[in-house]
Design a protein that fits this description.
7 helices, globular, about 30% strand, alpha+beta, Nucleoside Triphosphate Pyrophosphohydrolase, about 280 residues, single chain, 6-stranded mixed sheet, 15 strands
């Protein structure tokens, strides 16, 4: 396990599911050293060793209990708290990965303070990668929930949908969690049928993306629709419709998720002829 005693050790502060960024036109993740962030270490409710980066230990530090985390870190005025989903595509990939890892594992700690078997308070072990119950000795491990995302196409068009509560005008791909006892392929067929009311042919795996908001692994597929008519499940979706390549290449009145998201990558792949 890593050490907090080394001055060069890096910290990844997280405050109530938000990360800390250096403010400016080109945002960067704020990753103070253990020396610079000693106050954060002292006041953290949870500290988890993430591993090593460029030869230095890296720790996630939960400072959600602080009313003024930027002031405690001594960076007031030159840093800001932001949701990683908003800025993740604007910072270097290696920084985004650290911030996502920290956010996801600290969220797990926040939600698993009690044993699911006997209810007693659990204790972090093994650098924060296990929580152990002192009563029944059950060990709890971080979990990742698999979810499927499907690019549904037919000819020169694909389906985009939007959920209530999303930013106005944003459309994305159909997605949903895998049910117990279900394969990811079956989940893709079910989600499309349930939400769009249309069958699809054989699904083709494209790529995956960790999505720690809070703890998902998005698994991307493409599939050809068996018909043109959509019957939208309005309990799940606000709207869903076919978009042509031309519309997606020059969006007017709508937009799809930013470049770092799996939905964006699958759509761009299809537009480029690879989907």
């Amino acid at each position: 396990m890593g050490s907090l005693d080394r001055a060069e050790t890096l910290l990844v502060p997280v405050w109530r599911d938000k990360n800390v960024f250096v403010a400016g036109e080109a945002p960067r993740a704020l990753l103070p050293t253990a020396r610079e962030g000693s106050v954060l270490i002292d006041r953290a409710s949870e500290i988890v060793w993430l591993g090593r980066a460029d030869g230095r230990d890296v720790f996630a530090v939960d400072v959600s209990g602080e009313a003024d985390p930027l002031g405690a870190a001594g960076v007031g005025g030159r840093a800001e708290l932001q949701d990683l989903r908003m800025l993740g595509g604007l910072i270097p990939a290696e920084e985004a990965e650290l911030l996502a890892y920290a956010r996801g594992i600290l969220h797990w700690h926040q939600r698993h303070r009690h044993c699911g078997a006997c209810g007693q308070l659990t204790r972090p072990k093994e650098g924060g990668h296990v929580r152990e119950c002192p009563g029944c000795t059950l060990k709890h491990f971080p979990r990742t929930d698999p979810a499927v995302m499907v690019l549904v196409t037919r000819g020169d068009s694909c389906v985009l949908a939007r959920q209530p509560g999303w930013p106005q005008g944003m459309y994305a791909l159909v997605a949903g969690f895998v049910e117990p006892g279900e394969s990811i392929e079956d989940a893709a067929h079910r989600e499309v049928k349930e939400e769009l009311g249309v069958g699809i042919g054989e699904v083709a795996y494209l790529r995956s993306q960790p999505w720690p908001f809070p703890s998902s692994l998005m698994i991307g597929f493409s599939a050809e629709a068996e018909g043109d008519t959509l019957t939208v499940d309005h309990e799940e979706l606000e709207d869903a419709r076919w978009f042509t390549r031309t519309e997606l290449e020059n969006p007017v009145g709508f937009f799809f998720p930013p470049a770092y998201s799996l939905a964006h990558q699958l759509i761009r792949r299809w537009l480029g002829g690879s989907g």
